From TrEMBL:
SMART domains, A to Z: M16C_associated (SM01264)
Highest taxon of the lineage: Eukaryota
Gene Ontology MF, one: metal ion binding
Protein's recorded name: Presequence protease, mitochondrial
CC annotations in GO: mitochondrial matrix
Residue intervals of the Peptidase M16C associated domain: 622-852
Gene3D superfamilies, sorted: Metalloenzyme, LuxS/M16 peptidase-like
Keywords (A to Z) from UniProt: Hydrolase, Metal-binding, Metalloprotease, Mitochondrion, Protease, Zinc
Family the UniProt entry places it in: Belongs to the peptidase M16 family. PreP subfamily.
Compartments, as annotated in UniProt: Mitochondrion
Native source species: Oppiella nova
GO BP, sorted A to Z: protein processing
Alphabetical list of InterPro entries matching this protein: Metalloenz_LuxS/M16, Pept_M16_N, Peptidase_M16_C, Peptidase_M16C_assoc, PreP_C
Length: 1095
């Protein structure tokens, strides 16, 4: 779900995309025990701090207890989820339903964070990053609601942040100048010159122009607008740049008064902090000041979209994408179905499973080596003995059973002499050998026979990869096969899949990267696949695999689980649903099983009802237009001219004065002392909680294990490292391809039992997976198949399609992660591991994938993948790690032993070729200087940079940042309006940091708080000990590092900055990613590389 949020630093520790049904177990502290005692004493109907308890439920599958309350006076709702987790969360959500595309909800979210009555300083969220130990801080604007969540492990910090959040939401200043800054304004290009040109400016105005600069973003938003044309989703909640200038300051204040009211608010708290203190705080701070207003709650409700009487086909346009491998294939099309009100939770649970069954695709690369009967039946091959094979050779490989043939104009005499001398003169005729190998006649049957066999469907049916015609469509049996394996497009269309974040859920399926004349083929492929699914049904094992995946996701733990729960429950709760029903996972699973048992056609009937007979069906087609950007510029200029034509002399004077005033306010230094802060000495513990780790050796492989409260899941990690600490240089760019093939290889049924497969290109490579304890054998059997039997050349088309999908996804990521790509490319000039990272995950990898995606024949790729497999997938290169509950450790290690014993050994010889050594020349964490780097990078130098560039990067635009990742220091900016000034500021920051007179002891303390957000971030049981396993960082090393961090002084920072940033400047590089510009053309120091689309 797309959200628009602030551009301040998000310090979330979300390790996985799975926001949802996952949980973890924590040990009780005395405070947690007291909280649990209080919670257990609450009963439905009890009153507490102005609240009345409406419902209480234990949710054993999630290891939590849920309390639903209503504030009697204000009508505000509150959901508390008590769970033994120290990473506590607070969030407040408001239903914000715009009636136009002016972006009022989005701009209001920005203004609410420009200071409040009790905390009258600009951008308190950003400033709290250096005064807090928060594990997450952010705010989101969605199409129908706005959320303000944070999480922290510190009680004092929790109350500090809660006071700031509550004041920002319910008592913001909402100043007109902030509206001009954050929303939109007319301003001179040179604010000091009243005769310079006037144009549109504004943080949200520019943000939304940037957001709609990619075809994927345009398609995602327009899909929702067209599928729900009669309610709030028809509007652009983030703001249409051509409509934002229609928003007035008065309309924004009115929107706040009606929507940011407790009558329209939903609060959530999560974790092991006591509920009573939360309720008392919120009541005293906010809710006691308000009275329930039913109109505020009712007026923000989203009405149902009326169902259409017939399908609709809409057309939209986007700018061409210069990064795609096939420029003539840039059309995107999808078929979309409006489904069910999301408050019908079980029906949507069923639809989610059904859509997963329809979209999950088989993988053709993990094939049996002996697939043909003549090659051996896998069930019979184990019956073959070595002696029988030798006997077969002696009887059948004999000249008595041989036939020779020669052909051509070479002399016959020489052939005969050679064969006689070399072979035949050594053998004597044996009639038995010839007779025994003869094939007897098949006796004629007395009557006809009808025999039935089965095979997988062939989606190609004699057609070429990109050929499409109606006659082959009936051979397709699933949406994945119909769209992806058919080779029609490069990837699924944006937003493909089941979605339940809107008032009514929907299902979207389609393709991107197709030719315009293939649109009808895609539509027919979808229709045919749905009809075939009705005829074929779904095998029971596939349904069980999906339900098993639900169970696994329910048990799996993520590092910010409370945030995941809030994100999952919020849409249901926003639209009047009971959030407790959304927690009942087991109930939904059991009901689903009962329905399926009662009616075996339950799911196929749903396909008829929800898809085949559904008249609320949208076909959305997007085509590139070379005139798209020019048309947008013309429309913006026309809008600007209309605004300017209505200005009086008084208005022009006011625009000039407002520009100067806004600049003056930005230059003023806020008094941050009004904000609460933690104390380094009082609120950061000097103690470090050690992790219980054990090590051993199994068959010469190093094994680490750690007994953890993993809730019935076994976590497996392994490092793959060739004997020589080097890697053939020409193979490095193919490692991302190899990773994709390995992790996308298993059959869906196998993968459902495991949860996921992951291969990280860190060098040494790290592979990981997890499963329920009962499926340990299946998990390692799957890895054994990958190590021993992975085949790259059984289905070239599938491999090529996988590469094209990856290329499409990487191209789409460029506009959103350009600064990360720039950092990787810049650091690559330092060589070693940084060069390796650029080749495997930087711009070089994007270009390499694009070149591979344009190939029609992937045979050259296959040979490189085989070489990588021979280097990495063997017993000699592996060491393993297991995290599981104590009773599971021993059987897990026994299974690991069988796994290592069963996989191949490395070959005796390695490829003779140029190698890339990727040893990381890192500064050891025990060295005295290492712990000082984060202070200059994470906070102090950033303070200088932000001051130096305040006029270029107003609040909540992506500011330049400086990061410390020993042994490198990275400085980056994003969507930078003036690179020259930024580079100068970066260079000057080193000098600034090397003089301790530029910062105070308080600055250093705030820097320490910023650093400890990383040092003390929550670590899940699945991740305990991994830092030691992967990087060799022991608990003692982390403890020593922690002590040094706490004791860093201004003098330490000055000395290290002088030594490493001022005196050693030779090992540095600068990279600029963006369009052509005069700067790089005129300066010979720049090496310009132009990324061009394939011809």
């Amino acid at each position: 779900m797309l959200k628009f949020g602030k551009h301040f630093k998000s310090i979330s520790r979300l390790k996985a995309a799975n926001y949802g049904l996952s949980h973890g177990l924590r040990h009780h502290s005395s405070g947690a025990s007291a909280a649990l005692s209080l919670n257990r004493s609450l009963k439905v109907g009890h009153n507490l701090h102005g609240y009345q308890v409406q419902a209480i439920e234990d949710v054993p599958e999630l290891c939590l207890s849920a309390y639903l309350l209503t504030h009697v006076k204000s009508g505000a709702q509150h959901l508390h989820l008590y769970r033994e987790d120290t990473n506590n969360l607070f969030g407040v959500s408001l239903r914000t339903t715009p009636t136009d595309s002016t972006g009022v909800a989005h701009i209001l979210e920005h203004l609410s964070l420009c200071g409040s009555h009790q905390f009258p300083c600009r951008d308190p969220f950003m400033k709290m990053l250096s005064r807090s130990l928060a594990t997450f801080m952010n705010a989101f604007t969605s199409p129908d609601n706005t959320m303000y969540p944070f999480s922290t492990q510190n009680t004092k910090d929790f109350n500090n942040l809660m006071s700031i959040y509550l004041d920002a939401v319910f008592f913001p200043r909402l100043r007109r100048l902030d509206f001009n800054q954050e929303g939109w304004r007319l301003e001179h290009h040179d604010i000091n010159d009243p005769n310079s040109e006037i144009g549109f400016k504004g943080v949200v105005f520019n943000e939304m122009k940037g957001y709609f600069s990619t075809p994927a973003a345009i398609y995602s938003r327009k899909l929702q607008n067209h599928l729900f044309p009669s309610n709030t989703y028809a509007n652009e909640s983030g703001g249409d740049p051509l409509a934002i200038p229609d928003l007035t300051y008065e309309a924004l204040k009115e929107f706040h008064s009606r929507h940011y009211h407790p009558s329209n608010a939903r609060f959530i708290t999560y974790g092991n902090f006591p509920l009573e203190s939360h309720l008392a705080f919120i009541n005293d701070y906010v809710l006691s000041r308000f009275t329930f207003n039913e109109d505020y709650s009712r007026s923000s409700q989203v009405p149902d979209q009326p169902k259409w009487s017939k399908p609709v086909h809409e057309f939209i346009e986007s700018q061409p994408d210069p990064m795609v491998p096939f420029p003539d294939k840039q059309t995107t099309v999808s078929v979309n179905f409006m489904l069910e009100d999301i408050t019908n939770t079980h029906e949507n649970f069923t639809l989610a499973i059904l859509c997963s069954l329809l979209m999950d695709g088989p993988n053709a690369l993990l094939a049996n080596t002996y697939a043909n009967e003549s090659g051996g039946d896998p069930l019979a091959i184990p019956d073959l003995t070595y002696e029988a094979l030798k006997e077969f050779h002696s009887r059948h490989y004999h000249p008595s059973n041989a036939r020779f043939i020669t052909y051509g104009n070479f002399p016959l005499e020489s052939h005969l002499a050679f064969i006689n001398d070399y072979v035949l003169s050594r053998f004597t005729f044996n009639e038995d050998y010839s007779r025994s190998s003869q094939v007897p006649d098949q006796p004629k049957w007395s009557k006809p026979v009808h025999t039935f066999i089965e095979s997988q469907p062939d989606p190609y049916q004699g057609k070429g990869l990109f050929e499409t015609s109606e006659d082959y469509l009936p051979g397709l049996r699933a949406l994945y096969q119909a769209l992806i394996e058919s080779g029609l497009g490069s990837d699924f269309s944006p937003n493909s899949g089941f979605a339940n974040h809107t008032k009514q859920s929907f299902f979207s399926i389609g393709l991107q990267g197709i030719a315009k004349n293939q649109v009808n083929y895609v539509i027919k492929a979808v229709d045919t696949a749905l009809k075939n699914a009705i005829n074929d049904g779904f095998p029971e094992e596939r349904i069980e695999a999906i339900l098993h995946r639900v169970e696994l996701q329910t048990k799996h733990q993520t590092s910010n689980y409370g945030l995941g729960l809030m994100m999952n429950l919020n849409p249901l709760w926003t639209h009047g649903g009971n959030p407790l029903v959304g927690l009942r996972v087991n109930e939904h699973v059991n009901t689903f099983r009962a329905q399926l048992k009662q009616n075996p056609k339950f799911l196929t009937n749903k396909i008829k009802e929800r898809f085949i007979s559904n008249t609320h069906r949208l076909v959305l087609e997007m085509n590139p237009s070379e005139e798209y950007e020019n048309n947008l510029k013309e429309k913006e200029q026309k809008l600007l001219n209309e605004k300017l034509s209505k200005l009086s002399e008084k208005d022009l004077k006011e625009i000039y004065e407002n520009g100067l005033e806004l600049d003056r306010i930005q230059k003023n230094k806020d008094d941050v002392s009004v904000l609460p802060t933690l104390s380094v000495k009082k609120d950061i513990s000097r103690r470090f909680n050690a992790t219980a780790i054990e090590t051993t050796q199994i068959l010469n492989a190093d094994i680490q294990w750690s007994a953890q409260p993993t809730n019935g899941i076994t976590y497996f990690n392994a490092i793959l490292k060739p004997k020589a600490n080097s890697f053939p240089h020409h193979l490095v760019p193919y490692l991302p391809v190899f990773s994709q093939v390995v992790t996308n290889n298993p059959r869906p049924l196998d993968l459902a039992l495991v949860g996921y497969l992951k291969l990280e290109m860190l060098f040494p490579e790290v592979i990981s997976s997890h499963c329920l304890d009962k499926n340990i054998d299946q998990m390692f059997r799957l890895w054994t198949d990958i190590f021993n039997r992975i085949r790259f050349d059984d289905d070239y088309d599938h491999l090529l399609q996988l590469i094209r999908m990856c290329s499409a996804e990487m191209n789409q990521s460029l506009p959103y992660h350009g600064h990360r790509y720039a950092m990787n490319r810049s650091a690559s000039s330092l060589g070693g591991a940084f060069k390796y990272r650029e080749l495997t995950s930087g711009l070089s990898s994007v270009s390499h994938f694009r070149s591979l995606a344009s190939l029609e024949d992937c045979k050259p790729i296959v040979q490189n993948l085989k070489s990588i497999a021979s280097l990495l997938l063997n017993a000699d290169s592996i060491r393993c790690s297991i995290n599981a509950e104590a009773p599971t450790i021993r059987p897990s290690l026994q299974t690991v032993e069988r796994f290592i014993q069963s996989i191949n050994k490395s070959s005796e010889t390695s490829p003779q070729t140029e190698s890339l050594n990727v040893n990381i020349p890192a500064v050891e964490p025990t060295l005295s200087e290492h712990h000082v780097f984060p202070f200059g990078a994470n906070y102090l130098a950033n303070r200088f940079i932000e001051v130096a560039l305040h006029s270029l990067f107003p609040p909540r635009m992506p500011p330049p940042r400086l990061e410390s990742r020993p042994p490198r220091i990275l400085m980056n900016s994003y969507r930078d309006p003036n690179v020259d000034q930024t580079i100068n500021a970066f260079n000057s920051s080193a000098e600034w940091l090397s003089d301790q007179n530029n910062y105070s002891d308080q600055d250093v303390d705030e820097a320490k708080l910023s650093v400890f957000q990383d040092v003390d971030h929550p670590i899940m049981p699945s991740e305990q000990g991994l830092e030691c396993f992967v990087n060799g960082i022991t608990d003692q090393m982390k403890h020593d590092y922690r002590m040094r961090l706490l004791d860093v002084t201004k003098t330490d920072i000055e000395e290290v900055a002088q030594r490493y940033l001022v005196n050693e400047t030779s090992k540095s590089g600068v990279i600029l990613i963006g369009p052509r510009n005069d700067r790089t053309v005129s300066d010979a120091k720049w090496l310009v590389t132009e990324e061009k689309p394939n011809a």
